[in-house]
Amino acid sequence: MKLSDKVITKYFRHFAFFYSYLGYRSFLLISFSIFVGLLDGFGLAMFIPVFQLAANGGEMTSTESMGELQFLLDWIKTVGLPVNLNTVIVVMIVLFVLKAILKFMDGCYKIKLQNHFVKKLRNQLVDGLSSLDYKNFLNLDSGKIQNVLGAEGIKLTYGFLAYFNSVQHAVLLLVYIGLAMLSNFEFAILVSIGGYLSNYVFRFLFKNTEIASVGLSNLGHTYQSYLVQSVYNFKYLKATGYFSSYKNKLKDIIDKIELTQRKIGVYNAIMSSAREPMILLVVVLIIVIQVHYLGGSIATIMLSLMFLYRALNYIVTLQGSWQGFISNIGGLRASVDLIDEFDNGKEYFNSDPSIEKINSLTLKNVSFAYPNGFEVLKNIDLELAPLQTYAFVGESGSGKTSLVNLLIGLLSPSAGQLNVNETNRSDINLASYRKRFGYITQEPVIFNDSIFNNITLWAPDTPENRQRFQNAVKLAKLENFLEDLPEKEHTRLGDNGILISGGQKQRVSIARELFKDVDILIFDEATSALDSETERQIQDNIDLLMGKFTMVIIAHRLSTVRKADVIHLMSKGEILESGRFEELLENNSQFRRMVELQEF
User: Fold this and answer.
1) What is the value of pTM for the model shown?
2) Of 86, 163, 334, 425, which is the most exposed, with the fewest CB atoms less than 10 Å away?
């Protein structure tokens, strides 16, 4: 690694991270700080001639007290103005007003950049999640995903502000040290020594705060993961009495989070309480050194004290803002780590050609195995013709759901070929292909929103979409249900559809896929979680849709597939036999035994 790379990695790696999102704007923000510092320093320097002019009846007796900053008075003479008390006061006021205006612009611009950064980073996370390959998604921690996209977001905001406050404080510190060198070189040396020693004292706090911050983010991932599972499995935990032991697990994580937050709080408290004493200590030491050992004049000491106050204040505030950044660095690191995981697990496919309609779908000697070598599908030959209904039955673990994941494009064949409209699916735009499918699962996907938004997925409420909505509601047999609701399609369904029945949730799911305008409808165990009466009603829905769409039905209850055009009997990842219901009942003993074990 080059020396320059080592320097950047060690001292500027955080700036490089923010620069990757902000570009030249980062330097523009730093420029604001430089000009604010210069204007403030020049304004402070003008106090010296103001005091001298006031004390000497309006006459300047000496200019040496300003050191190299004498050019400010020379500039006043150059523009043709008299160097008197009124002129100097006006110049000083103008400098401080310009500083105030620039500081206001700096604050507004910083907020604008903060919003830009957080928005860009969050968009990158959302895009990464959307682009994630399904197989790689299964290997990720769902708690981490939820925590980073949700709770850690506030740390991004605070982390950004704390970092750029630190950068700006560091810049202002350098500006004041530079001004100090122009006015009094010895003073600058003393300030530098004082700053270095105080930074050395707080290095221990920075390191331990960073460790605690990263640990806090990891605990947040774990807590979110267990919390999501408690909500998802609430009914089971409540019914079995296991919630009492499960809550102890949650409380244990909460205790660890609280302990870590307390550590960070203590470190921050030490920082804030130590600032003023350190400033006073260094101020007193420098005054003593200047008066007793360096022989500084009263004017030199006054100017030194003004720059001293500013410089030392920024030393300590720099330490405080850096401590704030370190306290929130866990959120930034978690976001970057998750973005890397998303990038490594990204799904890639061709941008074209797009699939506008699926006319044929053919599997030729297709097999699928997971990376660990476990083969779940073997030598599948299958052809789906338009407007036909296909059913797949078999014992649990026979490969039915894996076949659906393969058909819909969540998985790709390990061997063999899957053709769409006589083109290998690997050569087409997979996103457009997936849009041609409607997918109704055993557990209906319902969002905590209105019926209209659940069916249209937040499509604009235009006349065209309203008509499509009404057509989908009619085909899904939801008309009577909507008519009985006071708020009709604007009725909210609650978290995971808790306010409606299982059958109504399935109808809403069906209506959503019909609104989408699809070619192939997939019902994956869509009635297995329903009671007999509700199952019959959903079965009526399915029967109504036969002949209008190509349909694929995965079923455990064989009554659901009795009217299918073709039934495929699966076992151990293979299709054993295919035919109509009556043909399989007559010719296949395994199918016959399955029928005999179920009630019709």
Assistant:
1) 0.68
2) 86
